[in-house]
Write a structure and sequence with these properties.
Blueprint (H helix, E strand, L loop, with lengths): L2 H4 L5 E5 L4 H10 L5 E5 L13 H16 L3 E10 L20 H11 L7 E13 L2 E13 L15 E3 L12 H7 L1 H24 L1
Parallel strand pairs: 1-2, 1-3
Antiparallel strand pairs: 3-4, 4-5, 5-6
Helix pairs in contact: 5-6
Length: 211
């Protein structure tokens, strides 16, 4: 798209409410920069994520960053939900096993806990919160179904990616072996696509209103 044509449309600019470089990289790959422009927050804020749902935690982060920067904020909360461990992961995924564990430690702990389990079904959830101001807050949710693998495999992902096999991919590979596929089909990608459609239509309506 030419610079002249791009200027005709409103580019929605948001600060990303996270200090996680991996998440910032994923968002930059997924979003059409002509619709949504996402930049990393200048500094990380410590936010107590004591909500009972992904939506509540995403909102808490967005509100905290908005109070700090007084600019539109994009936050997300995500995690893995495991059928056999209904109360141990989910919104607690990043804290699974307690403090001091690495991502790989947590993934290996999950494999250990499921060692004798027949039901290994699981799914990833991502909830995005676009906090424009106190009166304009939008949520989008994406989900990726699959199962926990029996081994830690793959080097391209992070978090629980090396122990998660997606149902939608016709192979026995983990997400950590499917980096390109993940960009278009992950829980985060699905939520982002919903958001992009919404803001594209919102931009079009704004242009119509100006005519």
């Amino acid at each position: 798209m030419s610079l002249m044509l791009r200027k005709r449309f409103l580019v929605n600019k948001f600060i990303l409410a996270t200090g996680n470089a991996h998440k910032a990289e994923e968002f930059s790959k997924i979003f059409d920069m002509n619709i949504l422009e996402i930049s990393a927050a200048p500094e990380k804020l410590e936010v107590i994520e004591d909500g009972l749902t992904f939506h509540e935690n995403a909102l808490k982060k967005a509100e905290a960053f908005y109070r700090k920067y007084k600019m539109p904020i994009l936050s997300d909360d995500s995690g893995i939900c495991v059928q056999a461990l209904p109360h141990e992961l989910g919104i607690y995924s990043a804290r699974f096993g307690g403090e001091g564990l690495t991502d790989k430690d947590r993934a290996m702990l999950l494999l250990e806990k499921l060692e004798d389990q027949k039901d290994r079904s699981a799914y990833f959830v991502c909830v995005l919160c676009f906090y424009i101001d106190e009166n304009n807050i939008y949520f989008f949710e994406g989900r990726m179904d699959g199962e926990v693998s029996k081994a830690y495999v793959g080097e391209q992902g992070f978090g629980y990616d090396p122990v998660f096999k997606p149902l939608a991919h016709d192979s026995d590979k983990t997400i950590a072996e499917l980096a390109q596929w993940k960009d278009d089909n992950s829980h985060r990608a699905k939520a982002c696509k919903q958001a992009e459609i919404f803001f594209r239509e919102r931009n079009c309506q704004s242009e119509k209103d100006k005519l």
